[in-house]
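Researcher: We're teaching a course module on how sequence relates to structure. For the next exercise, students receive a sequence and then see the predicted structure as C-alpha cells, so they can try to spot secondary structure elements on their own. Here is the exercise chain.
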Amino acid sequence: MKNRISSITITGALASAAMFAQAPRVEFEVASIRPSGPIQSAADAARIGVHIDGARVNLNGLSLNDLLGAAYKVKLHQIAGPEWMASERFDINGKLPAGSNGDQIPPMIQALLTDRFGMKFHWETKDFPVYALVVGKSGLKMKESPPDPPVDPAAERKAFDMTTSASQTGTTINYGNGMYMTFGNNAFVGRKLQASAMAETLGRFVDRPVVDMTELKGNYDFKLEFSPEDFGAMMIRAAVAAGVTLPPEALKLMDSSNGDSLFNALETLGLKLERRKAPVEVMVIDHIEKSPTDN
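Model: And here is the predicted structure for the students to work with:
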C-alpha cells in the first residue's frame, strides 16, 4: 500500500522537467503506447518514472491523468473525466524529431493524447472547497534548504530522470539535483521541495484539494511524523483518491483515523490548512478513448 504513493507526484515531476510556451504543433516522430497494468507491488511501483535521454523519451506506468498534468500543467483536482483515467496506466516510448528539445515534450504529449486517444475537452471555472496552505500565526518553523554549490557547465546533466525506489520501509520519489520526497517509517520527509509541490502532495491525504497560499519562494527540508495507525490510514486514503480499488478491510483501517494527524503535524512546521472556497479552472474531458489507436 505504501508504494502506491509513488504515483502521486509523478505529474509534478514531469511538468517541472520541461516548461513550455504556446508554440506551433509538434509531435513525436514515432511513439509506441502499451498498457502497463495496475500497480500491485513494490516492483510495479518501482517501474513508474520518466527518462529523457537525447532523442528518446520513456514514460513508464503513467495514467492519463498523469499525462494530462504533464502536458497542460494542471493538478489532478483540475481534471474532470472518467474515473478509469486515474487507474489505466501506459508505457510510452517516443522519439523526438531532429532539432527538437525537452521543452517541446509537453505539447508533444498534447498531440499524442489528441491523435491516439481521441481526446476532446473544454475549460470551466468552478468554485471548489479547498484547503489553503498558509503560514501559521507563530511563524514558519520549516528549514530552508542550503543553496546548491556552483555547477560546472561541462558536467551539466544531459538527460532527465525521475526515479521511484520502493522497499519494505517505504517509497522515495527522486527528482534529481537532491530533490526528493520519502514516504515511510510513519513519516513524510521532504528535501529541497517548494511549498507548491508540498501542497499538491498533501491534497492526496485530505478530503479536498490543497492550494498553496504561503507565498513562500524557497526550497525547504521538512519531516512530518505520524502514529503507525494514522500513517496507514493516510496511505489508504491516498490510494483511494488515486482510483485504487481496495478490499473492505482496508477501508475500515482508513476510518480508524480521525483525520486530524496531518493538520497537527503541519503545525510543527509553522504551517496550517484552512478551509476556504476558491475559483479553480477545470479541464473537462468531453471524450477520450480507453484504448489508443494502433502504434
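Model: If you want an answer key for the exercise: The longest helix spans residues 228-241. The two ends are 33 Å apart (CA to CA).
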